[in-house]
Amino acid sequence: MSTNNHLVIMAGGIGSRFWPMSTPERPKQFIDVLGCGRTLLQLTLDRFAGVCPAENVWVVTSAAYAAQVAEQLPDVPRDHILMEPCRRNTAPCIAYVSWCIKVLNPQANIVVTASDHVVMDVQEFRRVIGGALSFTSETDAIVTLGMKPTRPETGYGYIQADLSVASARNKEIYRVDSFREKPDLATAEKYLRRNNYFWNSGIFVFRVSTIINALRVYQPEMSAIFEGMQAVYGTAKEQETINERFPLCESISIDYAVMEKAEEIFVFPASFGWSDLGTWGSLHEQSQRDANNNACIGPDIRLFDTHNCVVHTTGERKVVVQGLDGYIVAEHDDTLLICRLSEEQRIKQFSE
Amino acid sequence: MSTNNHLVIMAGGIGSRFWPMSTPERPKQFIDVLGCGRTLLQLTLDRFAGVCPAENVWVVTSAAYAAQVAEQLPDVPRDHILMEPCRRNTAPCIAYVSWCIKVLNPQANIVVTASDHVVMDVQEFRRVIGGALSFTSETDAIVTLGMKPTRPETGYGYIQADLSVASARNKEIYRVDSFREKPDLATAEKYLRRNNYFWNSGIFVFRVSTIINALRVYQPEMSAIFEGMQAVYGTAKEQETINERFPLCESISIDYAVMEKAEEIFVFPASFGWSDLGTWGSLHEQSQRDANNNACIGPDIRLFDTHNCVVHTTGERKVVVQGLDGYIVAEHDDTLLICRLSEEQRIKQFSE
After folding, report:
1. Contact state of A317 with B335 under an 8 Å Cβ cutoff
2. pTM for the whole thing?
3. What is the number of other CB atoms lying within 10 angstroms of the CB of residue B75?
């Protein structure tokens, strides 16, 4: 484990698609979504065990969630829990933490990940992360992790790889041809038939100098904002200054801001049972299911004549369900949702 | 209002068919089942306003529920809340309270009612009760209230009346030919086609001397038990003695014990929107329903694409239901039930 390795966990999402389990006060990264005794945020840190020292872990979130992060990840240094004053998508988030890290260690080698995804095969995950970190430690590359697609998923962006030449340093890593937006079903089916399209997992690996150089080139205004705060990172004035300047950043994803523009972008195609858990349907798929294809997550759930459902409770709830097929039943605090899985895109509407 | 009038409310039921709303700790008579701000027990007392003085109200229940009765009915004298040491059906219950009343007032004229039924037309109810009390005050009759059936209900017992001769004292009161058990559907349909079969509401009116004489004749052993305790009614020794002797009573309904055997049994056919609320289906029918035939009882229930459901929550729950047809959704404390209305006879099984 190199002491240059840093881990950045982005934990500012509000998880509106998982209402009522996930609420703006306590979004899904702070919840034991899988019912395994650890929250998604904790599972995220867990799967990076051995990748970097605890003092090199960073979490970027909002002020509203900082206490929850500190409570759930007690080993993360309190001053590594960065608080964005407003939501500006992933590019300003990554820029902010990158400048913070550069002040401490200009040789830092960084993995950036979301806080609310799941990975089933952690051993393979660690092998891939290790390979990517090793690769970026010796190059100016930005490595993305591309998930080998198993279905024509329309909910993910895709990475088109040039599989004709593997990288000399790591035969599993390839150059990226292009990033593709979430496709329609016909396009997703086409991607699936070919073998060079991969789901964009949003997991990136790069040295701090690489990402900062790329930001300087492709996002000069944003870079100027963070460059101008060099004197305050790690000081008592940091938060106040960030609160003033961060809102000036354009709201833009790192994909748009850098990945689609930069030259040295690579993809590491991999299969480690990844999901962004973006929908109840994906939670259903990622969870252990009974003989009737029901995913039950909660301490006391009993089903009768019930099929293809996901039943999720937090707290000590007792639930009896009879005669449902293809439904979400979700309870959290004092809110109950019963909804067809096929209608889950309407959950935002229901929660208003 | 005659000071001889007494009201007896039987409130010892455990309401197992309404799980999880109704639990052994807090059965349905103690719950605001209709969402109107009053429990079924309170509504029961409310509908007798003007029938008898507050000091003539009696509630027979178990020790476990006495505190809930006292809390919900603060105007009922504490020593009129009688505690059965065990459940012995309605005959011992009525015998016990009748002997208690006789000690205080041998001229008492009594209405007996369940605590967990509903009546929609309270004005008509009072008119009928007044007529029945007037009738029994002048006769040795036992008057039952017979509900004019509106459907071939198989969940109620029936009273067959002899409509050929109305009583001279009240032209709406007739002699009973027989009591009939809960019928099968074909029989219920036959009863409905005739006009002399009425639902047995379990509401009885009689003078205390009438019921005690009938019990002495038809239930001599039970009567001996209560006769033998004459010296303790209303004294500090009452509970201790009842706890010893009451369990010796046969468990038998007043219908079997007296009504089906006695001579002077009358029925007052009436229509005042009565239901025993014995099932979720009957609650659905008795409740106000929306344009999609849903009955929603709770502070914050929102339905989408949902029909023919009964949604019942207690406490400050928020519920969103999408895409259900013909279901019970019931939440109470930390328990949730989702079940087809057509399968509600399985609720006892679910609750175990």
Report:
1. yes
2. 0.82
3. 9
